[in-house]
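Structure request: HTH cro/C1-type domain-containing protein, Acinetobacter nectaris CIP 110549.
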Amino acid sequence: MPYEEFQRLIGKSGLSIKEFALLLDMNPNSITNYKKIGKVPTQIAVIVSLISMMKDDGVDFYPIFERIKSYS
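Returned structure:
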């Protein structure tokens, strides 16, 4: 996915890049570094696409991430 589309979907989901990175337990700089490459990896693209679609459908995605973090 092109980085510009990633940014659009992040905005559509109501998240900042920092908030998205924290949901994934990643360093925000790791996400912004993809801008230099011009695209994001498939797994990041899938996650941001799903979050964006969930937001469109009025589904709260935060409980899913909380449940996953509880396994740690």
